[in-house]
Structure formats: structure tokens, C-alpha cells
Design goal:
The complex is a heterodimer. Chain A is built from no helices and eleven strands. By secondary structure, chain A is mostly beta strands. In chain A, the strands form two sheets. In chain A, strands 2, 4, 5, 9, 10 and 11 form a six-stranded mixed β-sheet that branches. In chain A, strands 1-3-8-7-6 form a five-stranded antiparallel β-sheet, with no helix packed on it. The radius of gyration of chain A is 14 Å and the shape is globular. The N and C termini of chain A lie far apart (40 Å). Chain B is mainly beta. Chain B is globular, with a radius of gyration of 14 Å. Classes of the chains: A mainly beta, B mainly beta. Chains A and B meet through strand 4, strand 5, strand 9 and strand 10 of A and strand 4, strand 5 and strand 10 of B.
């Protein structure tokens, strides 16, 4: 069973602070890693993806990948109340599920004004 | 604009009835997926299809059926055999990644099914 683990939260940060979201995965053959944001009652929307070890930055968001530790994280700088949502970590690999992604249960983020 | 259209958005069903959820995409994606999400839970894969006229079971296929007669369409039928069908159903699509493992899923808005 390929597991993707996230702390369910809620993670509460003040407006303007850095929010740090973490994710671990069990399948060492995993090759692609994604962060999705999901507002209550809505479908997930892609924030960013990362394939290689290291950091990848996109605006206020930075994804960090460490394949040796099987760990991926998302940093949100200058957090805004509009960032309050559930953040889903998803992992893809060559598997018998085609190109489907395995999702964690999500971390709920609350940014307080 | 390209995207994925799911319908209906909300659906109520009596126990013992089959229902079909529609999913249509105009992104020219080869692969399509159905996921189920329960409150406080992640997404669980029901079925997926990589090409027309071919589909495979995901992790929780029991009580569901699908078809893929057209590239654009991947309807999901929730049968009476599904014991706990009340959930949020999400359809997604992606390009088929050459070399595997590198794909981005685009999601529809979802269909919320409630069994009365």
C-alpha cells in the first residue's frame, strides 16, 4: 500500500507569517510530487509540482523535495487569510494505477488576520 | 476555455437506485480518473482510463462501473452494490506522461451524491 501522510492540522498562522506544510510518502519509486489547495466544498486546484530534489519557487510558494528522506514540503510566505484552505499532497509513480496520483488526507491551514 | 465539466453538481438518490455521474473534458487529455472524497479524507481512486475503450479499477472500484467510449467522456455509475455511496465525487484528466510518473491532474468541480 502506497501511503502519503500529512498532519491533519489545523495549522494556524498569523497573517504575514510563513506557513510550513509537510508530507511524507512510502513509495521509494515515486517520481512526481504535487501540492493542491482545496477550499471547503470545492475541487482541488494545483499550486505547484516538483520532480527533482531541492527547492522550487513560484511566487509566495516554495516546494521542497528530499527523496532520500521521502519528504516533501510546501512553504507559503506572507500568508494571507485567503490562503486558508486544506492543502493536499499528492504523489505519482510508475505503478499499476497508470498515471493516477496518491493523495494524503490534507492539512487544514488557517491564516488569522 | 478548456476544462472538465461534471454534472449534476448535487444529486440525491434513494437506496437501491443506480445513478450515473457525467464527466466531459475538452482538454484533449488521454487519461481520465474518478476519485471519491469523504469528509476529512483524502482522495481515493475509483477507476481510471488511459485511452478510449480501456479502463482499470482503482483502489475502491467495488460498487462502481465506468465506460470510455469517447476520449472526451468518462461517466461513472454508482450502483446499488455500493454500500456507502454518499460522498463527493471528483473527475480528473491528464496527459499521458511519456516515461511515466510526471503528470498534472486537472479536476472538475465535483458531484456531491447523497443517499437518502
Amino acid at each position: 500500500q502506497k501511503e502519503v501522510e500529512q498532519n491533519s492540522g489545523p495549522l494556524s498562522v498569523p497573517e504575514g507569517a510563513i506557513a510550513s506544510l509537510n508530507c511524507t510518502y512510502s513509495d521509494r519509486g515515486s517520481q512526481s510530487f504535487f501540492w493542491y489547495r482545496q477550499y471547503s466544498g470545492k475541487s482541488p486546484e494545483l499550486i505547484m509540482f516538483i520532480y527533482s530534489n531541492g527547492d522550487k519557487e513560484d511566487g509566495r510558494f516554495t516546494a521542497q523535495l528530499n527523496k532520500a528522506s521521502q519528504y516533501v514540503s510546501l512553504l507559503i510566505r506572507d500568508s494571507q487569510p485567503s490562503d486558508s484552505a486544506t492543502y493536499l499532497c499528492a504523489v505519482g509513480s510508475n505503478s499499476n494505477s497508470g498515471y493516477a496520483l496518491n493523495f494524503g488526507k490534507g492539512t487544514s491551514l488557517l491564516v488569522t488576520p | 476555455d478548456g476544462g472538465i465539466t461534471q454534472s449534476p453538481k448535487y444529486l440525491f438518490r434513494k437506496e437501491g437506485q443506480n445513478v450515473t455521474l457525467s464527466c466531459e473534458q475538452n482538454l484533449n487529455h488521454d487519461a481520465m480518473y474518478w476519485y471519491r472524497q469523504d469528509p476529512g479524507q483524502g482522495l481515493r481512486l475509483i477507476y481510471y482510463s488511459q485511452i478510449v475503450n480501456d479502463f482499470q479499477k482503482g483502489d475502491i472500484a467495488e460498487g462502481y462501473s465506468v465506460s470510455r467510449e469517447k476520449k472526451e467522456s468518462f461517466p461513472l455509475t454508482v450502483t446499488s452494490a455500493q454500500k456507502n455511496p454518499t460522498a463527493f465525487y471528483l473527475c480528473a484528466s491528464s496527459r499521458r506522461a511519456l516515461g511515466g510518473g510526471a503528470n498534472v491532474l486537472t479536476f472538475g468541480a465535483g458531484s456531491r451524491l447523497t443517499v437518502l
